DNA sequence: TTGAAAGCGCTACCAC
DNA sequence: GTGGTAGCGCTTTCAA
């Protein structure tokens, strides 16, 4: 491989001057620039980025931690982030964890070893204090409402949006509403459960254990849910569902079994994925591009900040 | 920042020895290891990866080029690749291009500057010869059937799977079949069009321009297609569709308009996404995990190889 | 406007 | 089992 010294020799100048040309410094003689350029063209030289990184201590790489990408929620999120990144001079490193803690630690080590300039957590398995223990290792941004010194966060207001969904169902006459969640104790599930409890309280409705279904993530979970529902005697009149995938599984299965939605069961999904549009399903919209922009903005800022993202109920035909 | 020399000094050994401990070399005295370890623990030292990269000339980074990730096809693909990568000691750099050529060139430059050890093209806008001109810059793998010296490829047999879909429709009595594609001249569309032409020829069926619909990618495109279909007089009895998203848009819109699928129109989708399962839709399965494994295997091999992926027709209720 | 030289922090070779 | 030393290729400071 040719290096900067080879170019310097060919152009009859010093490596310093070559470096100046490479980095478009002013005050270099035009003729000199041309000579260097000629040598570069001739050899097809490109500078060794590792040497630059070593010298400067940065990589312009932003790491993002996601559990999977075969789920629309995360892929749309990553897409939004990638769009935002492509407007900067940084690149995106993906650490897909399947929620394995070891993988998340690996990501944190990437930050610590400066292999990435910043790490964005889209979702996590490790405890907050583990993340906190790395807060001095580099810039971190988290997509949830944690209040840790030195760590930026952008978060969706799941409490408000869930409450709004419940209130909308109540306004449409529903007195027994069920909800389903994915990971029972994730930050967003905790918010959603609190919204549910507060809602029931406010309307003096009873809390029934069976009205909170957990581990619903995939479309298949919605199918299972529908089959259970079909066989149960006492059942809710409305369902507020984890996401549109689960809602679609629920909806299509019920309809195929002859149910009428929303008459027999009202459904609200989450994410406003295209499937919800196709099924004319009421859902909650998540502004992924805005979230991506926000996360990248925070990734590049020097101080830590907090930012709330509002979600919007999209009213369609399943309520 | 503490560096290897600081640790060496603290432990009373040389930097070489510290390096040996760091890299788990054998033949280091146990006491020495302990002393070094103590110094490392005390300072919280981690090695500067840039120096390692500079020294070794590698980054263990694999770049992948995708146009978007808000589409299930690509997100499942990236997910499959990410799963495969996570079994290696490499990491994944995503270059999301929106099919902008400039972005693809940026990715190629990343390879040339050794910022990544290998580049995987999942889909491209630039011409093959542009890619070819970078074939000496580093390892490249492409997800399509190109035959370029020094570039590995894994490709799906779109011709065979499309032909099989058409044959299946024909066997079910359909004589006028339409197809829809996305980008008219993409490698896969060209294969699919050829399969269509060959199929028509083999069965002495006429080729009608209006039976090839292009630019169908999103669910919304399927909705539009359905609306056109509803208003047209002479129409096909079966549709072989770009992907399950478009097929879902088509299906749900027709059903809502009172059509019976497959009686009024048979539909075959593509990708076997969960939505096709929910709608009980006949489709073609793409083995994303296998593709991911294969691409990463080729990324890490030294020679260039070719590999074909077979696709499988999943028979359900829309034919 | 240009150049010499000193690192950035690590690994690998060779010597002991 | 251990250490000295010579780079990897670049940028930056200082001096000319």
UniProtKB/TrEMBL annotation, chains A, B:
Highest rank taxon of the organism: Bacteria
Molecular function via GO: DNA binding
Residue ranges of domain HTH lacI-type in the record: 2-56
Keyword vocabulary terms for this entry: DNA-binding, Transcription, Transcription regulation
Annotated InterPro entries: HTH_LacI, Lambda_DNA-bd_dom_sf, Peripla_BP/Lac1_sug-bd_dom, Peripla_BP_I
Keyword DNA-binding: yes
Annotated protein name in UniProt: LacI family DNA-binding transcriptional regulator
The organism of origin for this protein: Alkalicoccobacillus gibsonii
């Amino acid at each position: 491989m040719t290096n900067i010294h080879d170019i310097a020799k060919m152009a009859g100048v010093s490596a310093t001057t070559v470096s100046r040309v490479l980095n478009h410094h002013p005050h270099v003689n035009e003729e000199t620039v041309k000579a260097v350029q000629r040598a570069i063209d001739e050899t097809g030289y490109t500078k060794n980025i590792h040497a630059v990184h070593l010298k400067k201590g940065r990589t312009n790489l932003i790491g993002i931690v996601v559990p999977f990408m075969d789920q629309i929620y995360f892929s749309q999120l990553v897409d939004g982030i990638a769009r935002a990144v492509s407007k900067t001079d940084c690149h995106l490193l993906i650490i897909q964890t399947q929620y394995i803690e070891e993988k998340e630690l690996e990501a944190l080590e990437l930050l610590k070893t400066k292999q990435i300039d910043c790490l964005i957590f889209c979702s996590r398995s490790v405890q907050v204090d583990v993340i906190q223990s790395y807060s001095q290792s580099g810039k971190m941004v988290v997509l949830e409402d944690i209040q840790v010194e030195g760590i930026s966060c952008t978060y969706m207001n799941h409490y408000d949006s869930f409450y709004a969904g419940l209130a909308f169902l109540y306004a449409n006459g529903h007195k027994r509403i069920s909800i389903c969640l994915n990971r029972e104790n994730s930050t967003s599930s905790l918010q959603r459960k609190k919204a549910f409890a507060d809602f029931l309280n406010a309307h003096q409705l009873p809390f029934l254990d069976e009205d909170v279904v957990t581990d619903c993530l995939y479309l298949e979970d919605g199918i299972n849910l529908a089959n259970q529902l079909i066989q149960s005697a006492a059942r809710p009149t409305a369902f507020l569902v984890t996401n549109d995938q689960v809602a679609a599984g629920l909806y299509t299965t019920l309809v195929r079994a002859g149910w009428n939605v929303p008459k027999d069961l009202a459904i609200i999904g989450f994410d406003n994925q295209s499937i919800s549009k196709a099924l004319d399903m009421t859902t909650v919209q998540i502004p992924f591009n805005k979230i991506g922009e926000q996360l990248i903005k925070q990734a590049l800022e020097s101080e830590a900040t907090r930012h709330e993202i509002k979600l919007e109920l999209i009213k369609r035909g399943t309520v």
